[in-house]
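Before the break, one more example. Copy the sequence into your notebook; we will annotate it together after we see the structure.
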Amino acid sequence: MEVDSIITSPFFLLMQNNKAISIAKLLSLHLIVFIQPLQSFGQLNEESCTKLKSFGKFYENPNSSGLQSAKLFLSYQHQVASINGKDASGKKFEDKFEEFRRFWMGFSGNFSDYCKFKVVSQLSNDRHNYPVSSGGPYRQWGHETFRAANITFNAGKFWDFEEVDAMEIGYGRRTGRMADEWQRSSTLINCLERSSFSNKLWLYDKEKGNPLAAWIKWKTGNHTFDTAIFSGTYDDYIGGWSDSKVYYASWLGDFSEVSPYELHEYWLSYYKQDGGIEQDRLAGGNEWAVSFVNRLGNGPWSLHSTLAFGDNGDQVNLNREGSFGGLVLMPMYWLKENKLKLVVRYLFQEADESQGLKLNSRYVPLADTRDNSIDLNSGRGDQHQSFYLGLNYYLCGENLKLVSGIQHDDLSASGSTQYRGWTIGSSIRVWF
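Here is what the structure looks like once it is written out:
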């Protein structure tokens, strides 16, 4: 892939021609679409914001021997986006999207002094942007899959171990956290979409949900350890253990109290998958992956980074096998404390084989399926760079915010450009 200097990079060249005006207009339109209805909210005062954050709490009885607390969870995200780029032959194309990005609902709570439960259902499946050939177009409402469904036991409190500060034993559907962007839920992420590299590391099942697992997690001092076994078997509800198994371990070191930085954390995660190509597998069949995350912060600024490597495992298409690796850097700065945040993200990833990497399904591969006249290689390649610039506006902390951003992607395969272009979008996000 050609490597441009900073001065001659597509980012700066674009700002010098009329396309920059077009992109600016699109961004303004997207902001207007969401900001206009938000103006009726104004700046939520502290009382209104507190009510939103605690809106889901509907039961609390700490003296009960059974259910002691319960809370309703709801997450709603609506998103618009546009892309403008060139395909493998250099043909220019544009496309626009609007969707119900997420609509999740669930419950969480405590019972019997030592136990917690959490259940979150995905209630939307918006595929109205997809053509008939890709299983669309439709918008479907109702339970699709579980984002979480688990029970945890506070073993540290029950047995009062002297050697550990806390210990949790759990069973059910949960996330296998690897990249920094997957260390926090979708309600807390800083960019419009997680990077394609972080999604590649994610232990998703074949329906892009979180899998069944059994785990033990414990904390001693500033060190937190998490060990788990994940099941590749997919089921719309809890599932079983008849397919692949993934063995996972992570260590989190929080050195903030002894560091000159207010935030200073390291996170090392690893998983190994044991399963054949004929079985249900997680993470698209990845055989193994290791990820190193660093988070630093002082005052208004912070820097999150992820360095990771792995192997695609056995695939039906041999061009999608082989090893891969990548780096994500995400500096952030509060332009106005707790109200306006600037977010920048740089990603570089590469793979051994010509289709060993894939862009996010939003929105380039989707454009490829909608327009038969362009060839984007289904968003696959062996080398990918992207640059994201975003601005987040917080009306009530993370519970009500507007996330907007623009991203440039450069994807190549065997030295030939497969896609080069821009994605711009905005999303209103609310949860309690």
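The chain has one domain: 10-431. The two ends are 45 Å apart (CA to CA). Try to locate both features in your own notes.
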